[in-house]
Write a structure and sequence with these properties.
By secondary structure, the chain is α+β, with helices and mostly antiparallel strands. The chain has 2 helices and 5 strands. A 3-stranded antiparallel β-sheet has the order 1-2-3, with helices on one face. A two-stranded antiparallel ribbon has the order 4-5.
Amino acid sequence: MENVEGYTVVYRQTEDVILAEVPALPGCFSDGRTLEEARERVRDAILDFLDELKESGEDVPHDVLYVERIFLSAAWSPVLPSVMAPPCRCSYAQQLTISILGGLGGEVKLDC
């Protein structure tokens, strides 16, 4: 089994819970009443999912290629460079900050 450092997780708020989905692992998802609880639960779900793949001899999928937000409103539509996920070990918030600074012409230092 390949050694994977982590996966991108998408969080969505519903009326009563926060849903957590792992796009690179179809069928791997969880939820929680709080963001912290959803994070803990989805981490456990990922580990269980990977254990099942190992037991069945299946390959471990790679994480998503990159994360990008597409703005639909013409009122504010910045052009942000995409941040490639595999070579960068930064959190999503760090990647977004790097993208914004890079798009504004700022100096970008990677500490990840």
